[in-house]
Write a structure and sequence with these properties.
Helix content: over 70%
Number of helices: 4
Strand content: under 5%
Shape: elongated
Order of helices and strands: HHHH
Length: 105
């Protein structure tokens, strides 16, 4: 089991970088085509960790499907993919943590 852990770690790292590139693409599309939605999404935070708030707002934007009301087919395709990607990543991460806990423990 321990021989598969490095592969899983690199898969999670690669998935994280992919996520950041997709988020950058969404923000780019919003900034260029939907300025009001972009401003609402990147508004200043009242939390001590502004990056955390921005991340949660981005995930909420995806989960609730706010992008659909913008009627942008490229944005809709990207956001639908990102939503599926996020769910798969979370499931994969939880599986990884479970495997790690059984290997270490």
């Amino acid at each position: 089991m321990s021989e598969i852990l490095p592969t899983l770690v690199w898969t999670l790292i690669l998935a994280s970088f992919s996520w950041f590139f997709m988020v950058a693409k969404v923000f780019s599309i919003l900034r260029k085509r939907h300025q009001m939605a972009y401003d609402a999404l990147v508004k200043s935070s009242y939390l001590f960790i502004p990056g955390f708030r921005k991340n949660m707002d981005t995930i909420r934007f995806l989960r609730k499907g706010h992008y659909r009301s913008l009627n942008d087919s490229e944005l809709t395709r990207l956001c639908n993919f990102m939503k599926s990607f996020l769910y798969c990543y979370v499931a994969f991460f939880m599986t990884f943590v479970g495997l790690l806990s059984t290997t270490v423990g």
